[in-house]
Specification:
Elements: H1 14-19, E1 40-44, H2 45-49, H3 56-63, E2 67-68, E3 85-86, E4 94-98, E5 101-102, E6 132-138, H4 143-146, E7 153-159, E8 166-180, E9 197-215, E10 220-231, E11 270-283, E12 289-304, E13 327-345, E14 348-366, E15 381-401, E16 410-426, E17 462-478, E18 483-494, E19 498-512, E20 515-526, H5 530-534, E21 537-543, E22 546-553, H6 558-562, E23 571-584, E24 587-604, H7 611-619, E25 625-651, E26 657-673, H8 678-681, H9 692-700, E27 705-715, E28 718-727, E29 730-732, E30 741-743, E31 746-756, E32 761-768, E33 802-810
Length: 811
């Protein structure tokens, strides 16, 4: 890992970003963005702040075409912890660093059908944008440099290191939108006409925050940032065309004409969030530096499941005479801390650090019931949850070694890391998962557990850890005055699955000061996460009156092994990249092509619930198991793409300062192999372990291309930022080709204007998604309820126009 670099005051402008000294992707202390052997983007604090949203993930997605931030809904806890992706790969194939130190991941593993299914990744939104000085994004594999999970690249957040000054801000906004949808077919004879459009004002969001720098003696700093955020949910329901009430004497209940048919939350969740982050450093008399940071965030969210109509078996009329909308209410507590020191001696620069991170998610289920208990059922439940923690000790030593026959010193970096990880899953209260014995009117058993999210059972409970050790060597030098070369190797050993050995070679040749070619080749191995190895859940259902458990099994569970599961192994990758850097005065252009082959990807299997599976498990002695899924290796993919970035800062004298950026990403993934097991292949009919909808999700579930054009203009006290992002075609896959839904390309325009009342005070007004663009609405033939108008694969969400105002004060 790189020794933290104490940041200087950053000025606004894109040309500063082009010459800014970076620490990501290189361990040479004087390397700038356009002089690297691999593609690195730098996003300044100003860029992050000049948008209406206060989510770090969305701010980065607005700035970087290779980075995507899908915003799914109706996917349980993934509504609350939404991951980012880089170059169309999985969220857990991106390594997140803070001040060049590994950030812990979220405890949540995504087990639903949205982007990143089966992955557990770092939650960028636990870090307030006000503590960030800049973000460096390495768009290249870096497993040999940083660790096994850097297959797609690295996101490094460099924190503020201010000993004075500060800023406060308040940002408020709301969704003001009109959206269209394709309603389903109303029951014959019901005197209603379904609308096709709807206007909403919702999603009111208020964020208050800021940062303050304090001096620690003559050569130290303490920067503290705090943020409070409150967000109301946005509701993008379609018109529910189903029958709600049982008929009365053969006629429709009159309430069918007055009931609210916009009954589903299909947007952003309700949210309350408080974050505190502190970063400190001190330089001692002998030049030694001591540094550290600490953070805490508490996030309370509420998202909904599907509406339970009054006549459904999942309802009890005496409890909910008009049906109910069950709410999943996760609470996330996220902690992090680091302490370290850096010093120099015998020509070496040393760094020693210890970092800690913990993420806990616990679930409440509200406005629900356990149907099997009957009318006496509670309506709110403690459903349990899970936690993940990480402790890492890291040591690096860097030294430039003069070599007589080389035009520049050989930069040598060596280091080692020891890491401990722990995953814990804890059970909910008994009523959240148990079967209460009640029967339905037809005599069949009622569903067990809390509706929408059955609690975790005592059988799911686990508290298990692992440790890993790694060592690396990183060499970088110029073989000639024009040829820069870099070599890295890393060896790692994990206590639970085995060894990793990775390497990387990169080079850059500057033909002229205005033109250079660069490229790299490397291999990577991503270790299975503890979440993938240890997560499990169980819910009870009844098939033909017989109780069965539908389970997500751990790969080493006996029932999963009977279906062909094996201990998880590492994903293996080979990355190739070739790019060009061009300079024409202040205009710079970079173009980088890449190919990423990944073998043995870890995926979550299909839900195996057929009668053939049940009968087979029974024959193997696993009675009462009605369905199973588990994590498994076995998907091979090939990803090819191209990143292009054009920057042009233009000082137009009396007309002010313009910063133009045009950037684009083209990305294509092909699945070349899917997992199979001999045990399942022998069944008749043989169930599919990883089906076409999941395959298409990997291949076409994210935009095939994404292009962003932006301009930032400043003249004296006035500033404007405008951007347009075109999202390419995406597919929401069905079980067959006939049920696939193609989401056509759309362009989203954001606009913000700013005015400085004084040198310290600024007002800003703007709109994200200025022209109120929505993804294509799902056809009525694929949306039989009418309640969910948009697919979760829509790459820019489905919130519509967001208008906002911001006031900030610097001191």
């Amino acid at each position: 890992m790189q020794t933290p670099v104490y940041a200087q005051q950053q000025t606004d402008t894109a040309d500063v970003a082009a010459t800014q000294i970076i620490v990501t992707g290189t361990r040479v202390s004087n390397r700038s963005v356009l002089d690297t052997a691999s593609a690195v983007d730098v996003v300044s604090a100003e860029t992050l702040n000049n948008v209406g949203v206060t989510e770090l993930s969305q701010s980065l997605a607005n700035a970087l075409p290779a980075l995507n931030f899908p915003r799914p809904g109706l996917v349980d806890a993934t509504d609350s912890v939404r991951p980012v992706t880089l170059r169309g790969l999985s969220p857990d194939q991106v390594l997140v660093l803070v001040n060049s130190k590994r950030r812990h991941s979220s405890a949540l593993v995504n087990v639903n059908g949205s982007v990143g299914r089966g992955s557990a990744s770092a939650d960028l939104n636990t870090i307030p944008s006000s503590i960030i000085n800049s973000v460096e994004v390495l768009r290249d594999g870096a497993a040999a440099q940083y660790g096994s999970d850097a297959i797609a690249g690295v996101i490094n957040m460099r924190l503020r290191e201010n000993s004075s000054g500060g800023a406060l801000f308040i940002n408020g906004g709301e969704r003001n939108t009109t959206y269209g949808f394709n309603p389903g077919t109303l029951p014959a004879g019901l005197a209603l006409t379904a609308p096709t459009t709807r206007s909403r004002t919702d999603g009111e969001t208020l964020t208050v925050g800021g940062w303050k720098g304090f001096s620690l003696g003559e050569d130290g700093f303490l920067t503290v940032a705090a943020e409070l955020k409150k967000q109301k949910h946005s509701e993008r329901s379609g018109y529910d065309t189903r029958q709600f009430y049982a008929k009365v004497n053969g006629a429709f209940d009159p309430r069918e004409l007055t009931v609210n048919r916009y009954d589903t939350w299909s947007g952003d969740p309700e949210l309350k969030q408080a974050t505190l982050f502190a970063n400190a450093g001190q330089t001692l008399a002998d030049g030694q530096k001591i540094y550290g940071w600490a953070s805490y965030q508490r996030r309370e969210t509420e998202s909904a499941g599907f509406f339970r109509r009054p006549l459904q078996d999942e309802n009890i009329l005496s409890v909910y005479p008009n049906g109910y909308l069950p709410i999943i209410a996760p609470t996330v507590d996220d902690y992090s801390g680091a302490i370290g020191t850096s010093w120099s001696g015998q020509g070496w620069d040393y760094d020693l650090s210890l970092t800690y991170g913990r993420n806990k998610m616990s679930f409440e289920v509200e406005d629900s019931l356990n149907r099997s208990i009957g009318a006496s059922s509670k309506t709110s439940f403690d459903a349990g949850g899970f936690a993940y923690q990480q402790v890492a000790a890291n040591f690096t030593a860097v030294r430039p070694v003069p070599v007589s026959f080389l035009p520049a010193p050989l930069n040598v970096a060596v280091g080692a890391e020891v890491r401990y990880e722990n995953y814990q899953l804890f059970a909910g209260e008994p009523d959240s998962y148990r079967y209460g014995g009640q029967l339905l009117a037809n005599g069949t058993p009622a569903a067990a557990g809390a509706q929408v999210f059955p609690g975790y059972t005592p059988d799911n409970v686990i508290d298990k850890g692992r440790h890993s050790t790694g060592a690396f060597v990183d060499l970088e030098t110029k073989l000639t005055s024009k040829l820069l070369t870099s070599f890295a190797a890393r060896a790692e050993r994990y206590s639970d699955f085995g060894n990793n050995l990775t390497g990387k070679a990169a080079a850059r040749y500057d033909f002229t000061p205005s033109f250079a070619l660069r490229g790299s080749v490397q291999n990577g191995l991503r270790a299975p996460s503890p979440q993938q190895q240890f997560y499990t859940s169980t819910s009870m259902t009844f098939i033909d009156g017989v109780a069965y458990n539908i389970a997500t099994f751990r790969p080493n569970d006996a029932a999963a092994v009977a279906l062909g599961a094996k201990p998880l192994d590492a994903e293996k990758s080979v990355n190739f990249s070739l790019g060009a850097v061009l300079r024409f005065g202040d205009l710079s252009v970079t173009a980088d092509a890449y190919r990423i082959n990944i073998d043995n990807r870890i995926v979550l299997s299909e839900n195996l619930t057929s009668a053939a599976v049940r009968n087979y498990l029974t024959s193997q002695g696993f009675t009462g198991v009605g369905g199973a899924r588990f994590f498994i290796n076995g998907v091979d993919t090939n990803t090819r793409g191209l990143d292009v970035v054009v920057n042009w800062p233009w000082k137009a004298a009396a007309a002010g300062r313009f910063d133009f950026t045009l950037a684009g990403n083209y990305n294509k993934t092909e699945v070349t192999r899917v997992p199979e097991t001999s045990e399942l292949a022998a069944l008749n009919p043989a169930p599919v372990l990883f089906g076409r909808s999941n395959v298409i999700g990997l291949e076409r579930g994210q935009p095939k291309n994404k292009v962003t054009a932006s301009v930032n203009w400043k003249l004296k006290d006035v500033g404007v930022t405008a951007s347009a992002t075109r999202y390419g075609e995406t597919i929401s896959a069905g079980s067959t080709a006939a049920t696939d839904f193609v989401i056509s390309p759309k362009t989203i325009v954001n606009l913000e204007g700013r005015y400085e009342l004084t040198k310290s005070t600024q007002l800003a007004f703007g709109a994200d998604n200025l022209f109120d663009i929505y993804p294509d609405a799902v056809p009525a033939t694929l949306n039989t309820t009418g309640a969910v108008p948009y697919a979760n694969r829509a790459p820019f969400g489905r919130g519509g126009r967001f208008v906002y105002a911001r006031a900030s004060y610097k001191f």
